[in-house]
Amino acid sequence: MAPSSKAEKKAAVDAAAWMFNVVTSVGIIIVNKALMATYGFSFATTLTGLHFATTTLMTIVLRCLGYIQPSHLPLPELLKFVLFANFSIVGMNVSLMWNSVGFYQIAKLSMIPVSCLLEVLFDKIRYSRDTKLGIVVVLLGVAVCTVTDVSVNAKGFIAAFIAVWSTSLQQYYVHYLQRNYSLSSFNLLGHTAPVQAGSLLLLGPFLDYWLTDKRIDAFDFKIPSMVFIILSCTIAVGTNLSQFICIGRFTAVSFQVLGHMKTILVLILGFLFFGREGLNLHVVLGMIIAIFGMILYGNASSKPGGKERRSHSISRSSQQKHGLLESSEVDEKV
Predict the structure, then answer these.
(1) What span, in angstroms and rounded, lies between the C-alpha atoms of 61 and 70?
(2) How far apart are the first and last CA of the chain?
(3) Which parts of the chain sit beneath pLDDT 70?
(4) How many whole angstroms separate alpha carbon 256 and alpha carbon 113?
(5) What tens digit of pLDDT does each residue of 46-98 get?
(6) Residue ranges of E strands in the chain
(7) Distance CA 73, CA 187 (A)
(8) Inter-residue contact 308 to 334 (CB < 8 Å)
């Protein structure tokens, strides 16, 4: 296959994976908002446990059908991933409860520089000036869109700090595990989803009671609310899978940058469905800045030198002696 056709095929698959993630992520936000606002189901952590339980059932069925092949993931690596992932879920819920909307959004924005730092430290990634500029422009645009009030207290700052670092580590670890253990998205979900489901369903009701002062066993489960819970769990299977696919293809930083497009889409959908309440001049300006930044980042990171992994230094004479002087070993495009 010609290089151009390979690049075109990769671009098409990348676009399909990204659209899959956008559709499922935005869809689950809308369904969960209806479930919590209309039917009063405010047990977010327990609901996430149900999401992973449904995802576990999906992986079991696919394994029985032969679509998921046996694979190995060391137990210490699995436990570290689940620890990061569960702290991310709990941290985000607590941060949203204890912080203003403005500070919560700033905390989410800070995941990009944290993810960059992790890639620089652990993967020896090197960013060009234009790539860094694209990231800064995206951050500026989303900040203009979403940050309206900023206030912080000590416990809110601690919750946001835990949420940001655990989420960034979890997203970095998805890419790390897939790369180092040759795991597909289905394989990785098959390893992690059961442990996450069990831990969240065990701790979720207690955590939700602490956060909301409501007991899940006292909730009035009626047919309409059950339909939305089932719909939420069904969409969550796609959300969980698409997240692993996208991080595996794009790396955590690119996933974070592109992920802010979902923020823009949610604002646009809010305008379409709920009128002009959420749309004003500074929101429109922020959207334009953020989209420009995403285009700038995409162009800069795709160019030679835009985003590269530096290999361990090997002397040129040694490389020539052993026949190892290949461009892919000097600077590997990420």
Answers:
(1) 14
(2) 21
(3) 1-4, 101-102, 146-152, 252, 258-260, 263, 266-267, 269-280, 306-334
(4) 10
(5) 999 999 999 999 999 988 988 888 899 999 999 999 999 999 998 988 887 78
(6) 125-127, 307-310, 331-333
(7) 9
(8) yes
pTM of the model: 0.76
CA distance 99 to 160: 8
Instruction: Say how far apart CA 60 and CA 106 lie, in whole Å.
Output: 38
Radius of gyration of the chain (CA): 21
Task: Please tell me the distance from the alpha carbon of residue 84 to that of residue 104, in angstroms, as a whole number.
Answer: 19
Report the alpha-carbon distance of residue 307 to residue 134 in Å, rounded: 12
166: part of which helix (H) or strand (E)? helix 154-180
Burial of 132 per CB tally in 10 Å (0-12, 13-18, 19+): middle
CB 255 within 8 A of CB 174: no
CA distance 314 to 328: 13
Q: In this structure, what token pair is assigned to residue 13? A: 């698959």
| Residues facing residue 331 across a β-bridge | 310
Q: Which residues pair with 309 in a beta bridge?
A: 125, 332
The residue assigned the tokens 């929101």 is: 283
Give the three-state DSSP class for 235.
Answer: helix
Distance CA 48, CA 86 (A): 10
Q: Is 73 left (phi over 0), alpha (psi -120 to 50) or beta?
A: beta
